[in-house]
């Protein structure tokens, strides 16, 4: 990333902090690791967590898709394997409109993320630092079209309105799986 663009990037978790942050989240309350995985590897905004329900998750042709009702409009994307695993665990025993984060509002999600960042000793302190990490890592990939990244994250109103090629989100999810392996050392089936 050029210096010009790097100064515009919001505060982000650093790649070498990811494994520590995930380990810290595993030691915390039940949804902490799930919150961290969704932020780091699906790029959710804190305001997008409370609206997630069991019906937000679908499986089609072996791909887990997550429908996110963001401020910029809903988006449905294929998620990385680490997020798919977390989604399956979270929706176990739930159905329909059962919330994935019962009793959690945006403020609680923001506070929990900030607390986890502090407990893990992360340099970033903003509740958007998880999402910013993914934005930064994906933007650094030269082989991934930037408009795919923007559409995946629901940024600036860029959506898949039929203009993106079939499988664009699978390509992004594959890149995220590669990032997960590089930064967190997580292995998948």
TrEMBL record:
Key words of the record: DNA recombination
Transferase listed as a keyword: no
GO BP annotations listed: DNA integration; DNA recombination
MF GO annotations: DNA binding
Entries under InterPro entries matching the protein: DNA_brk_join_enz, Integrase-like_cat_sf
Superkingdom of the source species: Bacteria
This protein's name: Integrase
Organism of this sequence: Kitasatospora gansuensis
Organism lineage string: Bacteria, Bacillati, Actinomycetota, Actinomycetes, Kitasatosporales
């Amino acid at each position: 990333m050029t210096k010009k663009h790097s100064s515009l990037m919001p505060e982000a978790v650093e790649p070498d902090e990811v494994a520590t942050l995930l380990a810290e989240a595993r030691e915390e309350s039940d949804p902490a690791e799930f919150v961290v995985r969704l932020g780091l590897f699906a790029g959710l905004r804190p305001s997008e967590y409370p609206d997630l329900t069991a019906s937000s998750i679908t499986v089609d042709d072996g791909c887990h898709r997550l429908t996110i009702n963001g401020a910029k409009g809903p988006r449905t994307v294929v998620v990385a394997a680490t997020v798919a695993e977390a989604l399956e665990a979270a929706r176990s025993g739930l159905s329909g409109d059962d919330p994935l984060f019962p009793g959690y509002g945006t403020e609680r999600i923001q506070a929990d993320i900030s607390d986890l960042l502090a407990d893990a000793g992360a340099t970033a302190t903003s509740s958007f630092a998880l999402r910013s990490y993914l934005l930064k890592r994906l933007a650094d990939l030269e082989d991934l079209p930037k408009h795919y990244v923007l559409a995946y994250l629901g940024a600036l109103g860029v959506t898949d309105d039929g203009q993106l090629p079939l499988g664009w989100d699978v390509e992004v999810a594959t890149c995220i799986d590669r990032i997960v392996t590089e930064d967190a050392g997580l292995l998948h089936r």
